[in-house]
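Hi all, posting the design record for the shared folder.

TITLE: backbone redesign
STEP: 1 of 1
STRUCTURE INPUT:
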C-alpha cells in the first residue's frame, strides 16, 4: 500500500465475501479489475444499508469506491454501485453453489494486489452465464424426458471456469502424455481408452502407471477439454449440458485446482 497519503480508487470489482469486523463494521474481500484482490473495511455496514445496500452480497459486480490509507493493509470502502447483481434472477441451490464456487476459487487462488484482467473477465463471463441456472436440476426441477434432462447452464459454466482457471494459472496438465513414463496417450484415446489421474499426483497416466486411487478420464472428455479451450462459453451454452455430460472432466478440473491450492474447495463438492 502507498505511504504518506490517501489514494482514492474507483473501479470494477467482484465481491468475494464479507464477515463481521469490530462492532458494526464488515471486512470485505474484493477482486478488483485495477488492483486484483483487495481487502477493506465497510464502516457501519451492519447498521446502515445506505452506502452499500445489497452490494455486499458475494458475486455482486460493483463499481467500487475505496481509499488506500498510509501504512495500512486494509483499504477504506467508501461506496459501491451495483453493476450486476446475482439476485436479479431466481437463485436455486445449483446456481448458488456455482456462484459460490467461482468466488471461493478467486478468493483462494488470487494473491493480494495482483491484477489479472483475463481472470476477471473469465469470472464475470461465468457468473452471468449462470443466470440460466433456472434450467437446473435442483428441487422442483422437472426433466424434459425420463431419459435425458436438459440440464443447466451452471454445469458447463462451472466446468468452463475451472478448466480456464487452471490454464490461466499455469496449472493445467498435459493430457496427451503419461506423466510417469512419457507414453503418447493419443493413440490410446483414439481407441476409446481412458487416461488416468490421481488427486495425489500431477498430470495423467497410462493404464500401466496408474495409482491405486486413480480415476478414469474418458477419451471423450479429454476431447471436450480441447474443444472448451477453443470455444467461447456463449457457443457452448447453446448445447445441452446435463450433470452427467463430461462429469469426469469437471471433477478432474476441480481436483487440479484443489491440488495446487492445497485445500479442498468446499463449494466444489457438488460439482465433482
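Okay, here is what came back for every position:
SEQUENCE:
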Amino acid at each position: 500500500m502507498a505511504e504518506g497519503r490517501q489514494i482514492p480508487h474507483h473501479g470494477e470489482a467482484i465481491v468475494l465475501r464479507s464477515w463481521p469486523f469490530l462492532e458494526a463494521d464488515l471486512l470485505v474481500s474484493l477482486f478488483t479489475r485495477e488492483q486484483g484482490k483487495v481487502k477493506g473495511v465497510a464502516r457501519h455496514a451492519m447498521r446502515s444499508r445506505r452506502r452499500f445496500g445489497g452490494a455486499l452480497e458475494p458475486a455482486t459486480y460493483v463499481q467500487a469506491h475505496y481509499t488506500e490509507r498510509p501504512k495500512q493493509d486494509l483499504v477504506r470502502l467508501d461506496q459501491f454501485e451495483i453493476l450486476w447483481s446475482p439476485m436479479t434472477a431466481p437463485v436455486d441451490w445449483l446456481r448458488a453453489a456455482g456462484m459460490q464456487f467461482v468466488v471461493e476459487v478467486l478468493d483462494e487462488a488470487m494473491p493480494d494486489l495482483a491484477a489479472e484482467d483475463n481472470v476477471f473477465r473469465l469470472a464475470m463471463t461465468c457468473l452471468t452465464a449462470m443466470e440460466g441456472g433456472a434450467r437446473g436440476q435442483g428441487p422442483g426441477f422437472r426433466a424434459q424426458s425420463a431419459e435425458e434432462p436438459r440440464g443447466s447452464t451452471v454445469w458447463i459454466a462451472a466446468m468452463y471456469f475451472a478448466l480456464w482457471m487452471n490454464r490461466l494459472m499455469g496449472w493445467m496438465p498435459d493430457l496427451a502424455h503419461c506423466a510417469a513414463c512419457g507414453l503418447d496417450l493419443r493413440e490410446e484415446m483414439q481407441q476409446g481408452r481412458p487416461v488416468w489421474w490421481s488427486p495425489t499426483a500431477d498430470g495423467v497416466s497410462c493404464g500401466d502407471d496408474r495409482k491405486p486411487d486413480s480415476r478414469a478420464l474418458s477419451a471423450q472428455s479429454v476431447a471436450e477439454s480441447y474443444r472448451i479451450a477453443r470455444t467461447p462459453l456463449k457457443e457452448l451454452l447453446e448445447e445441452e449440458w446435463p450433470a452427467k455430460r463430461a462429469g469426469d472432466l469437471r471433477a478432474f478440473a476441480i481436483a487440479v485446482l484443489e491440488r495446487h491450492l492445497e485445500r479442498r474447495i468446499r463449494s466444489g463438492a457438488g460439482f465433482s
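COMMENT: Residues 93-109 form the longest helix (17 residues).
Let me know if anyone wants the other runs.
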